[in-house]
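Hi F.,

I've been meaning to write this up properly since the lab meeting, where we talked about keeping a consistent format for the predictions we share between groups. The idea is simple: the sequence comes first, exactly as it goes in, then the structure tokens exactly as they come out, then a line or two of notes. No screenshots and no reformatting. I'm using this chain as the first example so we have something concrete to point to.
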Amino acid sequence: MPDEKDTRRSGEFRLSLEAAERKTPDVIPLHRAVMREMAEPRDGLEPVPVWLILGFLALAGWAGFYIAMNSGGFAPDQYNERALFAAKPAESPKPVDPMVLGRRTFSNCVTCHQQNGEGVEGAFPPLAGSEFVNGPPEQLAALLLHGMNGPLRVKGATYNGEMPEWGSKLKDEQIAAVLTFIRASFGNNAPPVSPGLVRQVREATASRNRPWTEAELKQFRLGG
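Output, unedited:
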């Protein structure tokens, strides 16, 4: 059986616990004031703020005004690049100066004929004062188109070499330009050569597959 002392001790402990509980404040009354300040949840949708509606209307009005002022009347040439370019007449390219093109093309010839057109004595004939350069232009065009092989007499000196053909490498316009350039340079004063003449010579000698000799070249004439 429990001891009387233990029973009394147990009763005192229970009384002390009850006294401690009575001294501890209730948490619910403490939080009741805070809970009253909290907004209670509500169902449904909030209306759009008036300021947001007004801002949207102002933005839409500005966009409409901007499009109206910068639309170009919604003309097709304002939005279609092809229509814009089609409306403008195509500008024809500016003609190339034959002297400029000829000087540039002559860069292929300076190794043999030199920059001053004097050639190399005993090896390559000069262009300055040359009978062929200042002679019939169709013979000079034929010479460039198909080249030359064998002895060639220029200004009293004989050159026995070979000149390559340029017909497969240069266009008619380039050949005409370089002939015009050398016939007006190095002290020469011969008329220019047209691309049309070079084209005629090319067509007239289309069947030729070997270089010229001096005798053959001197006999060549267009239509002859």
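Notes:
Residues 98-219 form a domain with the Cytochrome Bc1 Complex; Chain D, domain 2 fold (CATH 1.10.760.10).
The chain is about 50% helix and 5% strand.

If this format works for you, I'll send the rest the same way.

G.
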